[in-house]
Every structure is written in C-alpha cells, then in structure tokens.
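Supplementary Methods, section 5.1.

A reviewer requested that the exact input to the structure prediction be made available. We therefore reproduce it here, unchanged from the version used in the analyses.
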Amino acid sequence: MIRFCICGGGSLGVVTAGVLAQRDDTEVNLLTSKPSEWSKEIKVSDLNGKLYQGHLQIISDQAEQVIPRSDIILLCVPGFLIEKTLRDIAPYITTQAVGSIVSSTGFFFRAHEIFDKKTALFGFQRVPYIARVAEYGHTAQLLGYKTQLYMAIENLPDSFATQWGTWLNTPVAALHNYLEAALTNSNPLLHTARLFGMWHNWTEGKTYSQPIKFYAEWDEYSAEQYIAMDTEFQALCKIVGVSIPSVLEYYESSDATSLAHKLQSIQAFQSIDAPMKKTENGWIPDFQSRYFTEDFPFGLQLVKDLAEKNNLSTPTIDNVLAWGKQYL
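The structure derived from this sequence is encoded token-by-token as follows.
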C-alpha cells in the first residue's frame, strides 16, 4: 500500500486525489488550509462520463498529522505557496519522496535550498490534467488528459517515474535533468503570451460584453508572441544544456497561423475563459487571477533570471514580463 499526501486543495489537488484514491493499492491524505470544507468522499468526473470516486484517510491543516503518515508528498499549490509549503513540511521529511504537480513555478529551486541534498525529489514537466473544481472539497471535473507525461527525479530510480504512469493511467517517462522540468515553454510562456496578445493595448475603462475564450478565440498575434518568446527560450535551453520541444513542434504547427488554429481547435480547451471579472459596466481583465499572479512572477520571471545569469538577451520575454508585472 502506497500512502500519498496531496498538499493543496485546488482543482489539480482534488482531481489528482480522486484519481489516486479510487485505487485499491493506495491511500491518500490531504494537507489543506481549509480541512473543515472537505468531505472524505470525493468524486471526479471526466468529459466521457468516467467517474473517479475515492476516500481520503486524513484531512488536516497540520503537517505533523499527515506528512509522517505518507510515503509520497505531492504539492498541488500555486507558485507563491511553494516555498511556504516546503518549509512547513520540511521538519517531518525523513525518507519520503517530495514532488510537485508542475515544476515551472520554482519547485526544484526552492527544494534545493530547503532540503538535504539526499532528499528524494520529483516534479512533473507539465500538469497531468486539465482540471476544474465543481464543488470545493467535494467534486471536480477532469476536462482533459495528456497522452504522455515527463518527470524530473533526483535520488530516485527511473522506475519511480514509470510507476506514476500506472497510478495516473498515463505513461510517465523520466527526464535527464531537473531543468528539463523546471524550465518549460508551457504555462509561463503560453499564458503570458496570450494575456499580452489580448490586453497589451487595454486601458482603464474599456469593458467587454462577455468573457473572451482563452483558447477558442486564440489569435495570430498571440501566436506570434508565443513563438518569439519560445525562440528566446530555446536559445536559453541550448546554453544550459537541456532539450525541450519548441512550441511549433509540440503543437505540430509550422507558423503563427497554424499554431493559432491548433490552439483554437483543442477540444479539451474549448470552454476555458480568459481570466476576467464582471463589473457594473461589463467584463474586464482579472489581474488578481493566477494567470497573472503566478505565470509572471513565478514562471516567466524564472526564465528571465536564468537568461540574465547566462548573459542571454531576451527582448520579447522582457517586454511581455514588464507589461504583466505592472499589474501585480
């Protein structure tokens, strides 16, 4: 029996907890700031009607109650909570493996600062699912699966990564270097390029009659920004010695036009709105959303910092980052 502890109660936390808890060979604990709002029975449904239903063993906001009783610790928290969560659990880590559902918001950098060099660490390159909470602490929707996942591991055998493939029903392969997971041209570039594409000319007072579809209405200008940022990102990857597919390779596209069309057509993304909030006069950008508060300071900023350390010029990244940070 493998005992997991999920840290964090957001959409990825509840979906991953549900997928893991429905298995007969696992137990799942939960570390959350809102334990009273959780049910021990959680349900996760996907777009095909498949239901994952599982039981949580311990739900607590106290690390000492769940961490010692778990074998694998998985952080499902936003970037600004990575360091705090790691410091909260650090006193109770002995032989457990500690990882993150996504590594592009600073997990490995912070973990290297906080933990012993012998600590077993792992981190996914990209999130396993597209997930949305339906009823907090009770139900969630799994809106999309990945066909292949990649994981960076330290002080662990490659078999640890492949075992996750069994637990998540998706093949998982081990990467060669933690930077292959810590650096990504997914959310830190994809989200910020799209936000810049939509709203770089937005001014106070401008409103919209309805929310913009983040992917279904993806435009060519946003795709151009994404490709330009990725070109700079690929130059950084070459310098630090990691290999990550370009966005054109990953999305099987040849230029901005075909990339925009590809992103518009992904079925699992059709219902996702841009981060916006309704006011008396209409819809406006929501600068407090995680698209802004996470992907700029804990995603794109990490890429920029590493580029500076390696004396690499990144004019497009600099421009997009400066634009986003003015709203934080």
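DSSP finds 13 helices and 13 strands in the chain. These observations are discussed further in the main text.
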